[in-house]
Design the sequence.
């Protein structure tokens, strides 16, 4: 998620509290708790996998043959200008940045025109979800689907919803800054979300014409729902209607078949142009990281919506930082920003059905020393839908506190808390300032919470990209410092709806050189129904590796490299067909947009601009991905 505009923006600190940070809790906890070495025969302490959360009382994975049998990508093959994949697998490429949204649309040319880009696939491919063309089939997804269902239509035909997180000016425009509103519009139209219809034919997936294919970008009409909808903090003096979504990073899918796209580093698209008066950031501005120069996109110079110093557009910035719900099967539906899920730098929105049928959504806030959240709907999700209510509009938003003894508490962010009632006039104000509310209740500052995933046995996993402040090593915590991150795991009481949980550390990444399973900076994450954990990385790989996707066996700790990307990219986004025989992943900002580094997906010529794209992975024997 880095280019010339965004170096280390996730590593900045905007949390001013003295809440006890997670790394302190982790040191104290792991010093007393048993953590097993992964079963890989490593001489160096490069992989640490915790035993299962037996104390939580949940069921364990059933005994079965080894889950991972594929030949891993060798260390020496994991770098270069083209991807590498296991010898047991093959890949194809589809929907690169600039591809027509529909086959009959405007063809890619560089740099693109604003009007064309609005009808083309965006840049910065990131989180995504696959929706089988048969909705009933999709409702069973992740439960009892297996290879026996391979003849179902949805395994070969569906809608793909894909996020477009960011594209640097050099990559999109061929220059360091826009020089006109037209160029700003080009950049804006490259962000957002694409919905495309795809189909497999003769073993090759392709994009097909669709009445529901569409782009949702920075200038697309959107609406708000939930407690903050209509709030004064979401109104501007100019009276302009709500438009757009931006910096769409990770994502999720709901049990009722809709797509959740997450707005992460939205602050960086705003700036302040007024040189005659000093722009004075508010407490909220500071807590969300707004600054005069933003990330350097320069939108504020030509589009007043993004000028923090323009009084007519006061509060425009509050319209970003939300989870947005999109219907992938109905292009006439307006995207909805669900304010009950809070306003943070959302990194994922992972849904699961909890006790009494309530919808639960787990979310990370991707900035150093920010928090992990969950939302629990007020009632059974089907009952709410039948009554014409969204399960994401009514319920309770919680933030996590991790305790040294391996227990944890979900702290409600409601006005029943006297400290919150004293600070906020209503729930709308609280949700617009979710980070400040979480500070007040004493949540545990984390080390860049990234993706979350829920395994079928109820365990929840979350990637934490780094923990560089650790200063003392011990047997269970052998790296000091630990700049390469780890994966935390917890198990909630009452089937995800309780206010307490048990937690442990599933995996600690390593910094030693020369080990075949070397990796760092875990980011993308998905738990499959059999007990495999797919792990994607973003930056800082060791041993000359490009970013990569690995597969972990959660019962044994075995770790195998399935795919590596190209120089300068990020491997991100995971979506699978119901039979799990096709997986879609993304390469983001290959070569950081520099054609002298890579021209992927085009053949190497040193000239052609590299393009973000979706990589379609299949196993040569037709088997389940990861096996």
Sequence:
């Amino acid at each position: 998620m880095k280019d010339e505009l965004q170096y280390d923006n996730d590593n900045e600190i905007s949390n001013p509290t003295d809440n006890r940070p997670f790394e302190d809790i982790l040191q104290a906890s792991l010093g007393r708790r048993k953590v097993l070495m992964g079963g890989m025969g490593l001489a160096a302490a490069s992989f640490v996998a915790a035993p299962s959360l037996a104390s939580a009382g949940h069921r364990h994975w059933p005994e079965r043959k080894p889950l991972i049998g594929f030949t891993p990508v060798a260390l020496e093959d994991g770098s270069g200008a083209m991807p590498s994949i296991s010898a047991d697998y093959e890949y194809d490429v589809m929907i690169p940045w600039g591809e027509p949204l529909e086959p009959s649309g405007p063809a890619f040319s560089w740099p693109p025109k604003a009007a064309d880009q609005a009808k083309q696939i965006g840049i910065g491919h990131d989180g995504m979800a696959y929706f089988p063309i048969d909705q009933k089939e999709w409702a069973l997804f992740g439960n009892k689907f297996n290879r026996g269902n391979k003849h179902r239509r949805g395994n070969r035909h569906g809608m793909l919803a894909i996020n477009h997180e960011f594209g640097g000016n050099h990559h999109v425009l061929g220059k360091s800054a826009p020089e006109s509103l037209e160029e700003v519009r080009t950049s804006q139209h490259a962000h957002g979300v694409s919905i495309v219809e795809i189909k497999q034919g003769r073993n090759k997936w392709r994009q097909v014409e669709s009445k529901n294919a569409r782009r949702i970008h920075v200038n697309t009409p959107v609406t708000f729902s939930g407690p903050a909808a209509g709030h004064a903090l979401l109104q501007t003096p100019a009276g302009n209607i709500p438009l757009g979504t931006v910096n769409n990073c990770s994502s999720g899918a709901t049990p009722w078949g809709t797509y959740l796209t997450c707005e992460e580093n939205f602050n960086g698209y705003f700036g302040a142009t007024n040189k005659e008066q000093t722009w004075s950031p508010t407490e909220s501005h500071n807590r969300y990281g707004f600054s005069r120069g933003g990330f350097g996109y320069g939108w504020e110079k030509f589009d007043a919506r993004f000028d923090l110093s323009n009084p007519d557009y006061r509060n425009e910035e509050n319209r970003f930082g939300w989870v947005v719900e999109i219907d992938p099967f109905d292009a006439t539906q307006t995207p909805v920003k669900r304010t009950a899920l809070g306003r943070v730098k959302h990194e994922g929105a992972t849904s699961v059905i909890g006790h009494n049928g309530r919808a639960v959504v787990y979310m990370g806030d991707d900035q150093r020393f920010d928090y992990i959240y969950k939302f629990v709907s007020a009632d059974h999700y089907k009952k709410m839908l039948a009554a014409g209510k969204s399960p994401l509009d009514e319920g309770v938003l919680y933030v996590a506190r991790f305790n040294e003894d391996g227990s944890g508490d979900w702290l409600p962010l409601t006005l029943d808390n006297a400290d919150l009632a004293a600070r906020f006039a209503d729930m709308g104000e609280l949700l617009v300032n979710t980070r400040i509310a979480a500070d007040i209740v004493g949540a545990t500052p984390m080390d860049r919470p990234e993706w979350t995933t829920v395994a079928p046995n109820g365990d929840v996993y979350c990637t934490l990209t780094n923990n560089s402040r650790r200063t003392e090593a011990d047997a269970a915590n052998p790296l000091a410092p630990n700049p390469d991150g780890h994966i935390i795991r917890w198990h909630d009481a009452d089937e995800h709806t309780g206010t307490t949980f048990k937690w442990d550390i599933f995996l600690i990444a390593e910094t030693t050189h020369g080990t075949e399973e070397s990796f760092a900076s875990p980011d993308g994450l998905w738990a499959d129904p059999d007990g495999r954990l797919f792990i994607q990385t973003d930056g800082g790989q060791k041993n000359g590796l490009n970013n990569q996707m690995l597969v972990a066996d959660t019962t044994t700790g075995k770790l195998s490299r399935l795919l590596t990307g190209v120089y300068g990219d990020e491997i991100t986004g995971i979506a699978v067909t119901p039979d799990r025989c096709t997986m879609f992943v993304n390469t983001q900002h290959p070569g950081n947009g520099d054609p002298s580094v890579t021209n992927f997906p085009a053949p190497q010529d040193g000239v052609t601009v590299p393009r973000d794209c979706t990589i379609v992975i299949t196993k040569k024997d037709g088997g389940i991905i990861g096996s």
About this structure: Residues 32-51, 54-59, 140-148, 472-478 have pLDDT under 50 and may be disordered. The CA atoms of residues 91 and 222 lie 36 Å apart. Residues 181-190 form the longest helix (10 residues).
